[in-house]
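Example 3.2
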Amino acid sequence: MMTANETVVDVSQDWLLAGDVQQRFMQGHGRVIDSLDYSARCRQAQAIGGDCYDFLPLGDGRMGFAIGDASGKGLAAALMIANVQSSLRTAAIFAGNDLPAFFAIVNRQAYASSLADRFATLFFGVFDGITRTLRYVNAGHNPPIVVEHDGPVSSLEKGGAPIGMFPDSRYEEGSVELQPGSCVIAYTDGVVEASNRRGESWGMEGLLQAACAGVSGRLNAEAIVHTIFNSMDDFSEGKQSDDATLAVLQVS
């Protein structure tokens, strides 16, 4: 007969294995088109969590990328975001270039298979390496920022409601032309809501300072991810209470 201690060990191992599977489901960094370097990191607050990112080579010099954050924490959030990410990958194959239709498919699937109080914010963009244009939809997610070498910063806000919140949400597509040296920095709220021992939040100001330092220093995408996480951890003294995810696209 299994003892209580053995049960605890087995459960802990299951969570660690689930966390490993979740991390493997995210596709990390590299260069599949000549004009784009990219990297990301997802650091969950527990063994498993509700954040995700993804990079999807789409052919014809195009790269899709996503970042998402499910409501809640732990196992329920992990199941929700896994559902969204799986639907996203399937829709990317069948929805073609129609991003609003793409999001409508993902939203209906999430709404039909989730509890009433569960939803996820999601940003998905498609970068065209030939035109250096990023087309995107933002479903209630923290707006990614576009940082230029010379200082201007813009945000990517067009979209609609979070995924799974309403059955028939409609989405609007945005588009931005990116210049060589531009960086798109996408993040979840666990990044900007990191706090120190005095209860102060790192906030958008902290993220912008770290991001601009990395871009102006002409660091590559992976180094910018490390720079931002290191700056956030210095501020919070390593304390983390929420999942934190960052994805960086750097145009060359």
